[in-house]
């Protein structure tokens, strides 16, 4: 019993001595941490306010403000540990090793994150634009720091990692996509009349982009027909529907105006022996 009391007394004396010797350091370290937390909140609000006032993207502004806040708190914690006499060199080495390991394990995510920051800064496209990347197209509905979300005409949601948006070919057609079509007519057709018919058909579709006028002209001369090509801009959300409707309207107008769409023809001559019979 006496041994237990002696051990308890030793522990008590150790605690008292530690508090006596390091009380000011503990109070100082605690104050440093409290000041750091409070200061980080004010710095976060200030940076966020300044960035938003200068019309910096909200997502990027939040990221920068949070990152600065994290740096401030981390620095104050390091100062507080030093105030207590704790060596921070091993801690920094451990954090560095952990960061390296995490970086190697998450390098794909980190590259997406970095690409997202570049996208937010450079703004090659915005929400509502129609983009084509890696043979995938759709209307942009979300731009996150690690990925972007597209929606196509079939209402399919397509998630694309942002690293594919940087350093690759990206086509931004804004709210519309170009449609290319062609039709062959016979050589005895009135080509100017054919072009006018297609122009009138396209003019009846109010959904087409009025800023980009349709382009219609002679594409090439085939053996049995003259190919008339036409290009116009259809809304992304009704791309195929518009294309099919235009094609139906064109063939209907051709039938009404007696425009012939020829089929391939071949002339075959059979050469026999002239002296036969």
| N-to-C SSE string, H for helix and E for strand | HHHHEEEEEEHEEH
Provide mean pLDDT, rounded: 83
Q: Give the DSSP E fraction (strand runs of 2 or more residues).
A: 15-25%
Radius of gyration from the CA trace? 36 Å
Protein structure class: alpha+beta
Largest sheet: 5 strands, antiparallel
- Rounded to the nearest angstrom, the distance between the terminal CA atoms is 141 Å
Task: Summarize the structure in words.
The chain is α+β, with helices and mostly antiparallel strands. The protein is built from 6 helices and 8 strands, in the order ααααββββββαββα. The chain has helices at residues 2-53, 58-83, 89-105, 107-122, 191-203, 239-256, and strands at residues 130-133, 136-143, 147-151, 157-161, 170-174, 176-185, 215-221, 226-235. The strands form 2 sheets. A 5-stranded antiparallel β-sheet has the order 4-3-2-1-5. The longest helix is centred in the N-terminal third of the chain and has 52 residues, at 2-53.
Comma- or semicolon-separated keywords:
5-stranded antiparallel sheet; 19% strand; alpha+beta; 51% helix; 277 residues; 3-stranded antiparallel sheet; single chain; rod-shaped
């Amino acid at each position: 019993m006496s041994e237990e009391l002696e051990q308890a007394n030793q522990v008590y004396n150790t605690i008292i001595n530690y508090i006596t010797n390091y009380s000011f350091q503990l109070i100082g370290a605690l104050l440093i941490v409290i000041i750091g937390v409070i200061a980080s909140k004010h710095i976060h609000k200030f940076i966020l306010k300044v960035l938003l006032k200068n019309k910096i993207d909200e997502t990027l502004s939040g990221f920068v403000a949070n990152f600065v806040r994290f740096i401030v708190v981390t620095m104050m914690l390091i100062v507080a540990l030093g105030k207590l006499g704790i060596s921070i060199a091993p801690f920094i080495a451990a954090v560095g090793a952990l960061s390296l390991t995490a970086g190697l394990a998450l390098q794909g995510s980190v590259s997406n994150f970095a690409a997202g920051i570049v996208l937010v800064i450079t703004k090659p496209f915005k929400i509502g634009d129609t983009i084509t990347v890696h043979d995938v197209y759709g209307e942009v509905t979300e731009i996150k720091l690690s990925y972007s979300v597209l929606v196509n005409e079939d209402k399919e949601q397509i998630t694309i990692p942002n690293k594919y948006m940087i350093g690759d070919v990206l086509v931004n057609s804004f709210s519309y996509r170009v449609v290319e079509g062609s039709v062959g007519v016979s050589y005895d057709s009135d080509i100017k009349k054919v072009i006018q018919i297609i122009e009138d058909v396209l003019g009846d579709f109010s959904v087409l982009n009025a800023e980009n006028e349709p382009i219609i002209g002679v594409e090439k001369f085939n053996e049995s027909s003259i190919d008339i090509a036409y290009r116009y801009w259809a809304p992304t959300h009704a791309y195929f529907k518009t294309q099919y409707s235009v094609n139906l309207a064109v063939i209907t107008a051709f039938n009404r105006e007696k425009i012939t769409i020829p089929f391939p023809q071949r002339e075959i001559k059979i050469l026999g022996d002239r002296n036969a019979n």
